[in-house]
Amino acid sequence: MKFITAGESHGPALTAIVSQVPSGIAIDIDAINSDLARRQGGYGRGGRMKIEKDKARILSGVRFSKSLGTPITLEVVNDDHKNWAGRMDVIGQAPDGLKRETHPRPGHADLVGMLKNDFDDARNVLERSSARETAARVAAGGVAKAFLREMGVEVYSVVTSIGGVCIPDDVPLQKDRAEESECRCPDVETTEKMKQAIDEAKEKGESLGGEVAVIATGLIPGLGSYVSGPDRLTSKLGAAAFSIPAIKGVEFGLGFESARRPGSLVHDGIVYDDANGYGRTGNNAGGLEGGMTTGEPLVMKLAMKPIPTMMKPLDTVDFDTHEPVKASKERSDVCAVPAMGVVAEAEVAMVLANAYQDKFGGDCMVDIKKSIESYLNRIKP
Ligand code: EPS
Known about the structure:
There is one protein chain. The two termini are about 30 Å apart. The chain has one domain: Chorismate synthase AroC (Chorismate synthase, AroC fold), CATH 3.60.150.10. The protein has a five-stranded antiparallel β-sheet with strand order 9-8-10-16-11. It is an alpha+beta fold. It contains ten helices and 18 strands. The structure holds ligand EPS.
């Protein structure tokens, strides 16, 4: 499965095309729309989310709620486009007196994007480098999630820190509790502290980053490969995580902590029993060994930097005059960490769906399921 997205933040719509989709996947549009709504939520979002009510419209590749094996096109309309007449028109000429964005924001793609593409208006860059694009990824990821659902695999995420407020180590990373939290954090007390941190940041014109754990359960051992670097599931998942704007760090299982411990306190013991076959005494590896799934849950952590658009703008330079100025001050979110978790689910789901297709075939669900059954019969008692 591959996908590409298209669309600008204030253009008419975002689109995703998912290709190489097997036939026979049950596509639940409500599940896709529910993820789109989850991505829009989270404490710390700004005014734009009051304008949008993201819903996916499927334009191809599905008939009577089943995938046809043909490319699936999903469209998410930008309701805000109508408020940008004369500024984001697709055809025609730029109107006289159109205000250009010439104060590039530190931390955003603005400046380098302008230099690289010979633009004198950062809007040509920021419209696409906007996190709005991730709505299309979530829609596309919905197809991968639908595939995984048929495999008994669930991908979910929880927020573990915002602005330096972290959940205590002993709090279980429970999906249901996270979904009840305005910060998508599974601990009630930490949620309140996170909300307070976001309120304080808002008051100061600041923005906040944070961390998310993405977990996938129900995986079988042996997805991915140890044979070549690019085929390692670890490298594919890492690349997918780093494709999300603002991601600055990724860990698997114990992550960086495993570099600080001796081997005996890192590696998970191997056990065997007649009922279940091979098992592990722990999951420090985060579900991956040698670039392959072990059969334990996949546990990944992603770190997101604070949003670069700030109400108390940082120092920059005017693109025309090179004089020192303050960066553009636009409507923005104070914190989008809870939303990032939903985007990360979509990215991880896409990689995992691909890993199943690589091992078990790619074009027909019935055949893929039969192939998995025969594999499991071989490796399990
Ligand atoms: C964003 C700026 C804000 C965010 C946006 C990302 O939008 P606007 O410029 O319209 O106020 O709300 O995120 C989304 C629209 C979204 O759907 O996540 C930015 O500059 O990256």
